[in-house]
Every structure is written in C-alpha cells, then in structure tokens.
Amino acid sequence: MTERSSAGGFSWQPILHTARLTTGWQLHALAGPSGYEAYLAQLPPVLMPLIWVVWGLLAVLGLAYMGWLAWVGWGDASAVTRRPAEMSLLLLVWLGAAVATFIWFPTPVELHYLLPIYPVPYVAAGVLLAWLWPWLRWRGGAFVVASGAGQLWAVWLLLGFVGQVGTPGGMGRLFLLICMRPKRPKNGWPKPRPPR
Asked: Which of 46, 51, 90, 123 is the most interior residue, by most CB within 10 Å?
C-alpha cells in the first residue's frame, strides 16, 4: 500500500479500496496481525484468489459494458436504448465521482469513506450477467452462485475464527464484546424504581 504525506497529493488508495469492497481482497486482514495466517490456513488456497478474479472481472467487464451502453444509447431518442444509457451513466458517475474525489484528497483515505459505492460494482456485474444470460444460461448462474457461496463461507469462517480467538489488533475484541452484551429480556428492561 502506498501512503501519502500529510500534505496531500495523488493516492492509489481509493482505487485499492474499491477493489477491496468489490472482491473481498484482503478480507483476512480483519483477523488481525497475529491471526490472519491461522485464518487463511482454514481456507482452500485457491478459494479467495478465485473469488477475487471472478468478481473483479465481472465488475470491470460490467462497468465497461455499462460505459458502452451509455455511449451508444445516449444520442438515441427511443426509450429502449435511452433508459439503459441513463441508468448506466448514473451508476458510472456514482462510482467515478466518489473515487475521483478521494484520489487528490488532503488526508489519508480510509476504506469507510468509499462505502457509498459498495453496490455499484455488483450492479454492474448483474447488468453484465443479464446481458450474457442467453449464452450462459444455468452455467453462468451456477458459477456466480458458487462463487458467492464461497465468499459467504469465507466470511462465516472469519466470524467463527474471530469469535473463538478474539484476535488482538483485529476486529475480534469488539466482536466478542458485542456478542457478550446482555440480551434484552422478553418483557423489556425493568423500570428503575424511584429513589426513596
């Protein structure tokens, strides 16, 4: 990761954070500096790179397809091509404006600054898969469902790992505190008695 000085300037962080949000790249970092290797040992070695490639390609190709839709349909007056062009342009501006805003930002860019763009790459992947559906049929759907199931499995294992280990420096301690908080009784919390 490239860090930038506090004076500001160009940074690759918004693009890297967009890749992290889209593909789950570096998900293992949530296990903390002392526990990520043990977490990765629980996963098949090919699972996470496969998920990164699949969702990364789907998102990039989907964004390119939406760019093509916006380019081709913008000058057309018919509603058949105009609506997809408008939708595509809106999503491309949504993603592009957020990333462009933080490329020359005066302070270091954190991942949560880009959370508003979270759905855009997945919508782009869905638009691409909808266009490819006549050729892919069940094979493409099965592949996407399998990769999504793999990603959910990796997150489930991460939560289980963090819940058992309570990784210092990761999200483990906070996760354990949230899990250990008292549950609300069915009748609600007891009302405080007035002082005597």
From this structure: 51
Distance from C-alpha of 135 to C-alpha of 126, rounded to nearest angstrom: 15
Task: For residue range 108-154, list pLDDT tens digits in order.
Answer: 888 888 889 989 998 998 899 888 888 877 777 787 788 888 888 88
Long-range pairs of 107-115 with CB within 8 A, sequence gap ≥ 24: 107/6, 107/8, 108/3, 108/4, 108/11, 108/13, 109/11, 109/13, 109/14, 109/17, 110/17, 111/17, 111/20, 111/21, 113/14, 113/17, 114/14, 114/17, 114/18, 114/21, 115/21
Instruction: Give backbone dihedrals phi and psi of 11, rounded to 5 degrees, phi first.
Output: -145, 140
Alpha helices in the chain (DSSP H): 13-23, 36-42, 47-73, 79-103, 119-165, 172-180
First to last CA, the chain: 61
Q: Can you tell me the distance from the alpha carbon of 32 to that of 34, in angstroms, rounded to the nearest whole number?
A: 6
